[in-house]
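Q: You know discrete backbone vocabularies at least as well as I do. I have my own habits and do not want them to colour yours. No explanation is needed for now; the record alone will do.
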Amino acid sequence: MNNLKVTVKILILVAISIVGMLFVGHRGYSSIDKAAVELDFPFVFQNSII
């Protein structure tokens, strides 16, 4: 029964880490995508609030 508790704790940590990696990955992808758009159209976003 003690091994089951450890397994559940490890699975919870794995789930939290997957969610964290998805969040970081999405933020990185959206930042790179935004930078690519701003490089393609440099003067369109000159007066926009970032």
